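pls design
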């Protein structure tokens, strides 16, 4: 019998190449532009008390005119100024790691990378990425997606899967009131199909009973990233997936 790869299975090696490679987008374009605007004048580390007050310019000088020779100029104008107060917001990230992982998945011969460093650096990147999402809007209720169906099921079609990820913990709420839906608290997203915009949760969710209506009206719902507190609902008549971890620099 000739020697072949099949007969050498017990002695051939597996080749492991390089470092960990991310398979998702970590760009934070809007947040980076805000930080860079005006040479960093929009960012401050001097904070405390209730809020931070920024002076802003809100009005241009209207004393402009285009005249022929010896024609009176327009009245003099001036810049307009105001003070804006930005209340402090707080964002947190957590991870948990065992002592065994810290000791046994640290050096090059043990793992591709130090798992402690990967978890810490990854969490910082994730927090900044979420700040970038928050910067685009929905600061009050943390909307990240909208559900428009009335089904009681684990899988639902949403309007946008951009901010949804496997493993994310969310609440599904009535958007008009912020009330919880049937089974829609602290749900874990099991899978996200970006092609069909279908999100599958770890359990079924359904509409709550609507007093005075038989049968119940279609239930506008929202799912938000679960942080242990409920966020205020909006006045829109559609269901939403929201994140309540809103924070602003």
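designed seq:
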């Amino acid at each position: 019998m000739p020697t072949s790869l099949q007969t050498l299975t017990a002695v051939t090696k597996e080749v492991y190449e390089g470092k960990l490679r991310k398979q998702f987008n970590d760009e934070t374009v809007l947040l980076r532009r805000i930080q860079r605007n005006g040479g960093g004048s929009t960012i401050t580390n001097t904070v405390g008390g209730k809020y931070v007050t920024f002076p802003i310019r809100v009005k241009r000088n209207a004393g402009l005119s285009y005249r022929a020779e010896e024609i009176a100029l327009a009245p003099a104008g001036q810049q307009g100024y105001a003070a804006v107060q930005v209340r402090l917001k707080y964002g947190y990230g957590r991870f948990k790691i065992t002592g065994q992982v810290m000791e046994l998945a640290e050096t090059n011969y043990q793992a591709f990378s130090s798992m402690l460093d990967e978890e810490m650096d990854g969490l910082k990147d994730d927090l900044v990425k979420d700040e970038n999402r928050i910067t685009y809007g929905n600061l009050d209720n943390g909307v990240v997606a909208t559900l428009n169906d009335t089904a009681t099921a684990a899988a639902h079609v949403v309007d946008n899967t951009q901010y949804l990820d496997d493993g994310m913990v969310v609440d599904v709420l009535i958007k008009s009131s912020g009330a919880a839906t049937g089974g829609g608290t602290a749900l874990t997203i099991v899978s996200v199909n970006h092609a069909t915009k279908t999100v599958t949760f770890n359990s079924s969710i359904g509409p709550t009973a609507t007093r005075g209506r038989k049968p119940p009206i279609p239930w506008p719902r929202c799912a938000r990233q679960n942080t242990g507190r409920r966020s205020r609902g909006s006045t829109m008549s559609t269901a939403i997936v929201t994140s309540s971890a809103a924070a602003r620099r």
